[in-house]
Amino acid sequence: MVDSAASAVQSSAQAPPPAPPYAGLTPEVVLTAVAAAGWRTTGTLLQLNSYENRVFMLGVEDAAGADGFGGAKFYRPARWTDAQIREEHAFAAELAAAEIPAVPPLAVDGATLFFTPGFRFSVFPRRGGRAPNLDQPEVLQWIGRFLGRIHAVSATRPFAVRPTLDAASFGEEPPAYLLAHEHVPAESRATYAGVVRQALDAVARCYARAGEPRLIRTHAVAFHLLHFRFVETGRLELFRAESAYAGGGDHLPGSGASAGEAEHPGGLVALCRAAAPDL
Fold first, then answer.
1. Rounded to whole angstroms, how far apart are CA atoms 234 and 132?
2. How many CB atoms lie within 10 A of CB 234?
3. How far is CA 171 from its chain centroid?
4. Distance between CA atoms of 278 and 89, rounded to whole angstroms?
5. CA dihedral 15, 16, 21, 22 (to 10 degrees)
6. Which one of 124, 159, 190, 209 has the fewest beta carbons within 10 angstroms of its own beta carbon?
7. From CA 239, how far away is CA 229, in angstroms rounded?
8. pLDDT in tens, the chain (279 residues)
């Protein structure tokens, strides 16, 4: 019995830990995958900042053999289904077709989602620009009108497979999971549960006051400054389309912002006042 127990402990100790999601995403894998999808790469590769996914700027040749740059986005395994990613791609293409300056992924024979062992990815054209200056009222007006144009297209039809951003999935379920799996320290559990309950009760009162919300397609991260760029004077571009959800369309743009973010000089309140000064 002792030998058996010792053997079990030794076997358990030798079990390798699970590999990180991107452990196999080497530069060679990235360049080979993009080339196999139809782009001729030059070997230039630069990893860009990204939290959930992995995004790279890479050198590519155009049909005439001239060097240029493109972007490759490798999706976190198991986060989205293929259908959900394709629906997000279609949404970005729909915005671009409506003359809204978004950057949809490039297509090869109609396909925008590509596969390599262990990973899924898409390829985008490179877009330059600069972050908007939120200290200028005219910039806030541009952003307000820009978001309004996005929402006008978003409201024309619903998502079919993208998830819904609601109080249950984004409010009730996450803290319940953390508490059930003991991810909150024992000495903080009661305080954490109490604070979460207060916040969710306030959310419930907001829903009750607003009535049944009308859902539209939206990008949950569309209000992040890193997802906007000025590409020329007075022209905005939404260059990062990700994390699309069905969300409340009867609320002000950015209604998911915290109170501090909303009252920030460049936040929701200032943006709405600048875009609609008569309200």
1. 10
2. 9
3. 18
4. 36
5. -170
6. 209
7. 7
8. 445 444 444 444 566 777 788 999 999 999 999 999 999 999 999 999 888 899 999 999 876 556 789 999 999 998 999 999 999 999 999 989 998 888 899 999 999 999 999 999 999 998 877 777 878 888 888 888 888 888 899 899 888 998 888 889 889 999 999 999 999 999 999 999 999 999 999 999 998 998 887 888 876 555 455 455 555 544 555 545 555 555 554 333 333 333 333 344 445 455 555 545 554
SS3 6: helix
Residues in the chain: 279
Helix (H) or strand (E) segment spanning residue 147: helix 137-154
Residues 6 or more apart whose CB falls under 8 angstroms from that of 196 comprise: 175
Beta bridge partners of 164: 246
| The two three-digit tokens of residue 162, written as one number | 């993208």
Q: Supply 212's token pair.
A: 């049944």
Q: Two tokens at 191? A: 């305080």
Of 142, 147, 121, 150, the C-alpha closest to 56 is 121
Centre a 10 Å sphere on the Cβ of residue 269 and count the other Cβ atoms it contains: 17
* Cβ atoms within 10 Å, residue 115: 13
Residue 55 three-state SS: strand
